[in-house]
Structures are given as C-alpha cells and as structure tokens.
Amino acid sequence: MAYLSTTLKAVSPFSPLVKKHNPNSNNNSALLAYHTPNPTSKQGRSVIHKEQMFVAVHGVPVLVESSWRLPMSDVVVVRKKSAFLERSWNSRDVRKLVRVVGVHLLSLLAPFHFNWSAFKLCLWLSLLIIGICITLSYHRNLSHRSFNLPKWLEYLFAYGGVLAFQCGGYENVNDLARAPFYRFLHRTFVLHLMAYALLLYLCGGMPFLVWGIGVATVARLHTTFLVNSVCHIWGTRAWNTPDFSRNNWWVAILTLGEGWHNNHHAFQFSARHGLEWWQLDVTWYLIRFLEAIGLATNVKLPTEAQKKRMALI
Ligand SMILES: [Zn+2]
Ligand SMILES: [Zn+2]
Prior knowledge:
The chain has 10 helices and 7 strands. The strands form 2 sheets. Strands 3-1-2-7-6 form a 5-stranded antiparallel beta sheet, with no helix packed on it. Strands 4-5 form a two-stranded antiparallel ribbon. The chain has helices at 17-20, 91-107, 116-143, 151-163, 179-187, 189-229, 249-254, 261-266, 282-292, 304-310, and strands at 2-9, 28-36, 48-49, 54-57, 60-63, 68-69, 75-80. It is an alpha+beta fold. It is 45% helix and 11% strand. It folds into 2 domains: 2-80, no CATH class; 89-313, no CATH class. It binds zinc ion (2 copies). One zinc ion binds next to helix 3. It is a multi-pass membrane protein.
C-alpha cells in the first residue's frame, strides 16, 4: 500500500488562481493523497509506504497522523484544512463572501416567490450564464485563450459575466488593447449588477429577482464548484497529470463540458474538453458552431503526439 500526495486547490477552475497552481498558496483546502495498490503507478510523482506514516508533499515529507479514504474513490484525506480558519482573509475575500452569502439568503425566498415564468427565466439564465459567459468566455476564451473571437463578441460574452456575479475572468486579460475595457467593467461591476437587478425587478417583481439572481446564481456557483471538488475525487483518469483531476460524466452534463477535467488538466490550451466523441461537451459544440460561421478563429486542440506523451498507458 502506498500513498501519493499533492494538494488540492480550493479555487474555482474558472478562477485565475488556477493558472498559477502555486503549491505554497495559503488557500489549499485539504491535504490529500492517492491510495494506490501499485507504487509504480504513473498517477503521481512521489511514492512513500504507509508504514512510514509520511507522505511527500511537493518533495517535503509530512507526518501523517490520521487519514481516511473518501467513499468510492482512491483519494485519501491526510489532513483536513479549514477553508475559513486557516486562510489569510483579505478585503476581496470578504467582499466575495458577502456576495455569496447574499445570493444564498436571497435564494431561500424562492418557495415564497415561485411562478413558472420566474422558474423558466432561472433555467435560461443558468444555461446562458454557465454555458456562454463562464465556460465559453471566461474559462476557455479569456483564461486559456483556446480560441479567438472578434472583439465585439468577446466583450459581449464577457459582459455577461457581470450577470453571473463574477468579474474575476477579466483579470486574465493582459493585452494592452483590451485591458481598458475589462478594467472599466471591473471598476463598474457593482453598478451593472444593480442595474441588472433593477431591470429584473421591473420586469417580474420579486419572483424574477429571487429566481433570476438568487436561485440562478446559487445553481451556477455550485455546479462550478463541483468541477473543482468532485472532479478531483470521483471519475476516471486518462492522462498522466500530477494532480487528482478526473473525468466525470455527470458533472460534464451539468457544466456543459467542464466535467472532463482530467482532459482539461492534461491539455489546458484545448478549446475542446470532451476529447472522445462520446464525451458530451456542449461548450465545445458552441465553439465549433462559432468557428463554422467564421467567428471563432485559432481554435486550439491537442495533437496526436501531445496525446501520446500524456497518455497513462
Ligand atoms: Zn482552466
Ligand atoms: Zn482542477
């Protein structure tokens, strides 16, 4: 029996932090290890026998006092870390916390303000926001530059991120020609959000506000978080990446393709996450459509040689 270890990032896959993959970051949620019967497995970098009660974390031996295996997974939690107490809070974190708690409180009012139009609005907004603004725009277009869009379309999709209560995607844009637009959006983010809330309220009263902002945002937040929690614990691995990333089909359905997370960690530049024909990736179909009508260009995909290099077997 052997343990392979690494740390799991507690940030959203759509967050710019993920690009840095800083092992010394203060924000790792837990210390995890692989439980594997085969010490020569290619799944990790370091192997240490359990009897020694140490695991290697980025090359540094760490004493293991207790551990437990996550159900239906080969991932072992070595040390639990409190995301609240063991993190260095800054004003940005606090603002985010207020926003997240706020939308959760708002969504609690949902049963008291239910009507079918508000419910349909919530479904459409969740789909559009997750599919286009977050997954296609923030993640694949802005964070990883997996493809290019004409400026007007890139800005339009990115603006939708405001509706998702998220402006983090803009921080990935470094090029000087586009930075002023994103800086403007970032600074005026709260104003746009307030205007959007007012518009929803004027169109459909409290039901639109509660379902269009509260429930839709909570649904979007939690499906996004699944990628970074579930997809590092449950699922299958096809590529030799030095992390816990997994391909998980049901998360891929909920997140319109982001659940093929082992594929994504292996080829972060790829516009396509569902690399097999049967791996449903709705965001990729959208990108292909944009490419077919001449709007998406320079669409990046892994080559056969790159796949061969990363394959587990
Ligand atoms: Zn990513
Ligand atoms: Zn990940």
